[in-house]
Amino acid sequence: MKRRQQKKAEKQRQAKVFARELRAAVEDYQPAEALRAIRERIGGAR
């Protein structure tokens, strides 16, 4: 049971980091750069 909670917490933490990075990329607004970063992030998350 505890293991599942740890996994859930880890996913939430990753989601927060991802959201923060995404926001930063959008604020900078460099579409190509942002897309590449997102693809890398998604690839790295899996």
Automatic annotation (TrEMBL):
Domain of life from the UniProt record: Bacteria
Protein's name in the database: Uncharacterized protein
